[in-house]
Amino acid sequence: MLGACSSGEKPEPTAANPDPEEVHAVLDDWHAAAAEGDFERYFNHFENDSSIFMGTDATERWTVAEFKPWSKPYFEDDGVAWSFTPTFRKVYFSDEGSTAWFDEELDTPNLGPSRGSGVLVKNANGWKIAHYNLTIPIPNAIVDTVVHMVEKELQQSNQ
């Protein structure tokens, strides 16, 4: 299981002091659903059709309602949409315990080392993803080169 906030003793979960393992379980199952090509299970982890998924490309900002038709072929073609394996995750909660923020490091076969961050809200159906942002961290040593490449690509696509 991935690490969360930890101290010597684990307090009893309450509404104001939620259990981070519940958030880990939701996110782990969400990633597993994509790896298993389970479209319904994957999208049932979102709060609603207005929840946001942000991909790595600047054009990839979707509501869930927009993301579903875009991603459906990935789920149907191979039985595996994509495979993100969390290697580290940190979870934080609001004071009243109904909102969770997280950031995670991911191992991915197609993107390499990646990072996800997002927000979950707790409702009557448990923890649900309201916002997810997938990124590819760029080492500072090569950021100037990458910025130049992005600017060149944008110029070419605008012609």
Automatic annotation (TrEMBL):
Domain SnoaL-like: 23-139
Gene3D superfamilies: 3.10.450.50
Signal peptide start-end: none
Pfam families to which the protein is assigned, alphabetical: SnoaL_3 (PF13474)
Residue segments, region Disordered: 1-20
Coiled coil location: none
This protein's name: SnoaL-like domain-containing protein
